[in-house]
Design goal:
heterodimer; A: eight-stranded parallel beta barrel; 12 helices; 13 strands; about 35% helix; globular; disordered C terminus; B: alpha/beta; TIM Barrel; eight-stranded parallel barrel; two-stranded antiparallel ribbon; 11 helices
């Protein structure tokens, strides 16, 4: 089991390197502006290479105007020749890469935009409460637990999936991927619950999404639902929610740019750790101390796993 | 440009056809013996957030709706629309598709690549339309969907008119867009779902993206912020531009609304399209709409215009 840390800027990169993870991730699953331009990215990669860490490059859904830039970036990284993992969250981009980029020095993973399940819904247990056990399991398994789909994706060059470390996902879906020799990266604690093209953070800070606004996404904004919207009442369209009823069901949200996350701590045990190839942390979601503590805890559990590699920290 | 209207029962089908829909779309509840209660293979729950039925409840009623629609030359689009289709669900999913075909539906609305591959593997020849669950924001994505057999592609609401025009020019597939009530998040990747359970708690008003939030971090602490509100509600002033851009289908949202509420919306959009065809301006049309449906004015007051210039558009990642 290996550790991956996702960083959002060069400062976070320095901190991440100190924690000596196996991978460092740069880029974004959700916003194209968080994928740095090649010059910046190249400098960051030099730092990562120097420390013997493997880079992961994350690409989001890509609006039309950015397709050439992202493609050029991937081609340049491929020409650079240092192996890396590439996370894809756009089927158009995947198709282009599969057709245009040969002799790849990177492994491609399907990212969280496509790799998901109903377990990501904060109130999925309530919604599924009246369904049969078979249906519950079916809806909570990963979307790529599907022979036809997986073969199709593999034919386009996919060799791994990213998934959230949630109970059904870990207990059921990972076995399937293991049997198919698909590599698995697990995201711990922070569960992406919704994404949008209309960036919530850009709107809040009155910015147009661009390379200039990316620093607003270097930290999390917490959000608690307090007033429901009553569309029929044009005079007073908002009403305070009933805390007692709502709070047990609706978690506080963590907003990073155009993505809405929920925090769900999953009991991490030896079995869970062995179900994935690496565990990913997003640096924006933790203080350094918290992250170090979390990684040390994983290290302890991992050491108990007989015959397994000890996390390199 | 066709209008495609939502239906969940025979009465709704009659009202929508009378309102001027050239196409209808609908889902079918899965039989109880499948173990499914609220879940369906239709992209919606069996009941809506307001505890209204959202699906046609029996295959017999579906067949009757198909006969009625075909008698009026109206196309029946069947939602075989799932985000998650893993090995455990494929058999049940295929049964769902076959029930629709047996009842006489004309096309399948599909929201999952695995489902599309399965439909083709099974030799099902009905045209496949991609749902918004298969969202994407570039032409390569559209080409990819076309390459795996989709003949119609629905765009999410978060597109500019220029992008829609560009996509229409680049593809042989039909392009469908939403007429009203756009989501704040990407429909195919939002799990803050309006559900019967949540609606019960919220007394039916369960759209969390349109509510107010207390927000905080190390530097901020504010209350009553409409942080997640990015939905837009109306496109009547843009219908001519959409048609000229090459959009072939305008989708009216509201499968889970009572027919008496949603059919008048279809009627307004039909009326607007007809008035554009007669050469009337959007200003003239808007005024007639306000006269016929005074409540429509609230969209204009909020400037909740889809595909136009709105502050929300400035937050789009382009």
């Amino acid at each position: 089991m290996k550790i991956s840390i996702r960083v959002s800027n060069t400062e976070q990169l320095k901190d991440a390197i100190k924690l000596k993870p196996n991978y460092i991730g740069i880029g974004s699953e959700y916003c194209v502006y968080k994928v740095p331009e090649y010059e910046v990215l190249s400098m960051m990669l030099d730092q990562i290479d120097k420390n013997g860490i493997k880079p992961e490059i994350l690409t989001p859904f890509v609006p039309e105007t950015h397709v050439p830039r992202i493609m050029d970036l991937i081609i340049s990284l491929n020409e650079r020749g240092t192996p890396f993992d590439l996370t894809i969250n756009d089927l158009g981009l995947l198709k282009l890469i599969s057709e245009k980029v040969g002799n790849r020095c990177f492994d491609m993973y399907i990212g969280h935009v496509y790799s998901t399940s109903f377990e990501n819904c904060p109130w999925h247990e309530k919604v599924l409460s009246e369904e049969s056990e078979e249906i519950k399991e079916g809806w909570c398994q990963n979307n790529f637990v599907n022979d036809l789909l997986l073969e199709h994706m593999c034919s386009m060059g996919i060799s791994g999936v990213e998934l959230e470390m949630l109970p059904v996902m870990l207990n059921k879906s990972t076995k399937y991927f293991r049997n198919k020799n698909i590599k698995i990266k697990g995201m711990l604690d922070y569960i992406p619950s919704a994404i949008t093209r209309a960036c919530h953070i850009a709107r809040y800070y009155d910015k147009k999404p661009s390379f200039e606004c990316t620093s607003y996404c270097d930290k999390v904004l917490n959000a608690r639902f307090t007033h429901r919207y009553i569309p029929d009442n044009t005079e007073e369209p908002y009403e305070v929610v009933n805390e007692e009823l709502i709070r047990p069901v609706t978690p506080d949200y963590l907003i990073i740019g155009n993505a809405i996350y929920c925090k769900r701590e999953v009991d991490i045990n030896e079995k869970n750790i062995n179900n994935v190839d690496s565990i990913t942390f997003d640096m924006r979601a933790f203080s350094i101390e918290e992250l170090e503590k979390r990684i040390n805890r994983l290290k302890e559990i991992d050491r108990k796993c007989e015959g397994k590699e000890v996390v390199s920290i | 440009m066709n209008i495609m209207a939502p239906v969940h029962d025979l009465k709704g089908a009659r009202l929508q056809i009378a309102a001027g829909a050239e196409e209808i779309y609908l889902g079918l509840r899965s039989p109880v013996e499948t173990g499914m209660s609220q879940m369906t293979f239709t992209g919606r729950y069996n009941m809506s957030g307001k505890n209204e039925v959202a699906q046609v409840q029996t295959t017999e009623e579906l067949a009757e709706i198909c006969r009625l629609a075909h008698d009026h030359n109206v196309l029946v689009n069947y939602t075989a629309n799932v985000r998650y289709l893993n090995e455990k669900l494929t058999g049940l999913y295929l049964d769902h598709v076959c029930r629709g075909i047996a009842a006489g539906v004309d096309t399948l609305i599909v929201g999952n690549i695995g489902a599309a591959l399965l439909i083709q593997k099974e030799g099902i020849k009905l045209p496949m339309h991609s749902s918004t669950f298969l969202f994407g924001y570039n032409k390569e994505h559209i080409k990819y969907l076309e390459s795996i057999g989709f003949t119609r592609i629905v765009l999410t609401t978060q597109f500019s008119m220029d992008e829609i025009r560009d996509i229409c020019e680049s593809t042989n597939a039909e392009i469908e867009v939403f007429a009203q009530f756009a989501c704040s998040n990407i429909n195919g990747r939002c799990n803050l779902l309006h559900t019967p359970y949540i609606a019960e708690l919220y007394d039916g008003y369960d759209m969390q993206c349109r509510g107010l939030y207390k927000i905080w971090n190390d530097h901020e602490d504010k209350s009553n912020v409409p942080l997640l509100y990015a939905g837009l509600d109306c496109s009547i002033c843009k219908l001519k531009e959409l048609k000229d851009a090459g959009v072939t289908v305008l989708k009216i949202l509201g499968r889970d609304r009572i027919p008496e509420f949603i059919a008048p919306v279809t009627k307004i959009y039909r009326m607007c399209l007809d008035m554009y065809d007669k050469g009337m301006s959007s200003k003239e049309i808007r005024e007639i709409v306000w006269e016929k449906a005074p409540w429509w004015k609230s969209f204009c007051e909020k400037k909740a215009c889809l595909y136009g210039k709105h502050k929300i558009d400035d937050s789009y990642i382009v």
